[in-house]
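agent> step 3/5: call structure_predict on target 'N-substituted formamide deformylase' (Acidipropionibacterium jensenii).
agent> reason: downstream docking stage needs a structural representation; sequence fetched in step 2, passing through unchanged.
tool.input:
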Amino acid sequence: MTMLLHRARLLDLRTGRPGDPCDILLSGGRIDSIRPSLPRPSTVQAPVIDLDGRLVIPGLWDEHVHTEQWALASRRVEVSQTASPAEILRTIADHLATLTGPADGEIIQGFGLRASRWPANPSAADLDAVSGRWPVAIVSADLHSTWCNTAALQRLGIPDRPGFLTEADSFAAQIKLAQVPTRSLDMWLDECCRRVAARGVVGIGDMEFSSDVDVWLAREQAGRCPMRVQVAVYPDRLDEAIGRGLATGQCAAEEPGSGPESLVAIGPLKIISDGSVSTRSAWCRQPYPGASGPEGSGVDAVPLAELESLIARATRAGIQPAVHAIGDLAVSTVLDAYQHCGVGGRLEHAQLVEDADLPRFAALGVTVSIQPAHLIDDRDVMDQVWGDLNVGSFRFRDMLDAGARLIMGSDAPVSPVDPWLAIRVAVERTGDQRPGWYPGQEITVSEALRASTHGVEAVAPGGRADLVALEDDPFGSHGEELASISSALTVVGGQVSHTTL
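tool.output (status=ok):
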């Protein structure tokens, strides 16, 4: 498809300076040329879109999304992240009171609890007391725990588990909870993707546990893939991926080049090495206050020898490792594994980082995948749990100053797919009316934008036609104004995915 963008102004992401008005010709999914003035395309069907001086930047990415959980969360009963178990039970009871019909249908699903500040984990019996005949499962905001009643445990095929599932048990339950009719899931996910196109999102990294490139290709063929998707592989399917010759960044289509470039590509190998702060399972050097026993300092989910083996095998096959590590001991251990293997990769989250580990990211060639909006939700929990030790939390400035490469995302549905919210939090260390948390770790708008554009720093001839025309100047915006920037036009592969023009 050919398209001419008229009277655009390219925004320099390094300096924040807008260029003079220009025309941008898109053709075949690429940027053909950029000149002060270009003739209208000779093809009658080729649209000419007048941007009227709007700023144009490379399309924005969310590098870490659990897509099926994101789609499901849009349909789940929302419970407050600050609610107590008693308050959540009232919310569920109120919702169930509105339902009619038999209870032998789908499990009633809730989303959003945060148990880290509760004195103890609730039981299935607690939820049974208000759920009656309905099977109910409530997934935590960080995805690392799931509260089920007895009927839901039976429906999920795990009647021998406690009502409050954590880590591997929770992930297994969520895979089963995601088994809704394909048509419904695809429709919900398509709605989510099209909605965030209005925020300028052109691509996501799909980190869903059960994601499959073939499923995404089928969605694309059905017209339900309005953005680029890099689909992660988990260790249980690594052999299959290697056997198929899949490699990170490779087009997922079996016969690339036979038509328009597919928007679906192979992502990294996702490995989960520890838990989360909200579940008190992030693996840390110090035990959690009041905790005891072998998991009092969190969870070491993957033994070091196994972690190194996975990293080495994936790298040899051309699949980039991406290892989840939130606690400081987990971060240090993952860096040790990369160092022992002599390879780079990605480290997801890096929420707690020790001074000694800061220069290791750059030295080892490890990219840090951060989710700034987690700061909004986790600051209260971390103040309660760690107190003064929080000086080591969300160290964006320190990591950049030490030479690390940052990329940004949301971990949706833990945080919303919203790059402008993430940029605001990274720049101001807050996402609400409270003052910045541990100021001094802010990064600049320029740095945050460059961490959000998938390594593309400029709109230039030959590049992919993944562009966003903005309604406001991010370099002149602050607070809620910065977080609320929207797209007047979003283009992915030369196709319009969103427009208000």
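agent> step 4/5: record observation. The domain at 1-58+461-501 is CATH 2.30.40.10 (Urease, subunit C; domain 1).
agent> proceeding.
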